[in-house]
Amino acid sequence: MGKVDVIFKKEDIDPASMKGKVAVVFDVLFATSTITAALAEGAKGVYPVLDHVHAREKAKSLKEPYILAGEDHGKLIEGFHPPLRTYLKSVIQDQQVILSTTNGTVALQRSSQADALYACSLLNNKAMADHLNEIHDGATLTLVCSGSSRHYTLEDFFGAGSLIHYLVEGGHWTLSDGAQTALLFYNGNNEPVADLLSKAKIGRLLIGAGMDPSEVAFVSQEGIWKTIPFYDRAEGKIKEWKHELS
């Protein structure tokens, strides 16, 4: 029987302690949702980097078509595409995406010593649960909520709860107290997910700053894609899981 634990924010990640574990990172608003959408809609891969400096360094080393996308504390980085599906879906086909965000890509980097590392969102939560039950049955799963500004965020905790819900539907797992709490939160929610995420701090801030609420509505959809974003350590990028990798 496998085990499931939850890390509440990226600052709580001990990179060395991730060894021997399977890590699943959530940044529902928006990095891991953007990664899921990008791979589902034709991007060749996504390089999650720590900041815009690392993004530009990575760009110099690539010998294939790429785009830069990212934000820094909610503000667009000069020369970068906004890191949202609406802006990226028309430009990512057959491109490598170099993605820099304040929280999600940092959490992915800090989790990269895990034996296996995935990016999850509500958009692919059901498929991710099926994949983990099939490939990592009996493993120790660490669900990483990226959080924001050293605080945990409602949307990532809800995302972790959603994955746990589908994990226990199809497999046998021992849940930590944190994982139990996330599951109870997810199962106890009675309002539309888009409304819940719009009321979260990040949702309020972004919508208040002029972001179209449809961005939140889109990433609130559960299970619309079967895409499994998997971190290939040798290449330093996230790409869609293929069974030959197993």
Compile the SSE list and pairings.
Blueprint: E1 2-7, E2 22-26, H1 31-40, E3 45-49, H2 52-61, E4 66-72, E5 75-76, H3 85-88, E6 96-100, H4 104-110, E7 116-120, H5 125-135, E8 140-145, H6 154-170, E9 173-175, H7 177-188, H8 193-199, H9 201-208, H10 214-219, E10 229-232, E11 237-240
Parallel strand pairs: 1-8, 1-9, 2-7, 2-8, 3-6, 4-6
Antiparallel strand pairs: 4-5, 10-11
Polypeptide structure, described:
Belongs to the ComB family. It is a single chain. By secondary structure, the protein is of the alpha/beta class. The chain has one domain (2-227): ComB-like (putative 2-phosphosulfolactate phosphatase, Alpha-Beta Complex), CATH 3.90.1560.10. The protein is 37% helix and 21% strand. The protein contains 10 helices and 11 strands. The chain has helices spanning 31-40, 52-61, 85-88, 104-110, 125-135, 154-170, 177-188, 193-199, 201-208, 214-219; strands spanning 2-7, 22-26, 45-49, 66-72, 75-76, 96-100, 116-120, 140-145, 173-175, 229-232, 237-240. The strands form 3 sheets. The protein has a 5-stranded parallel sheet with strand order 7-2-8-1-9, sandwiched between helices.
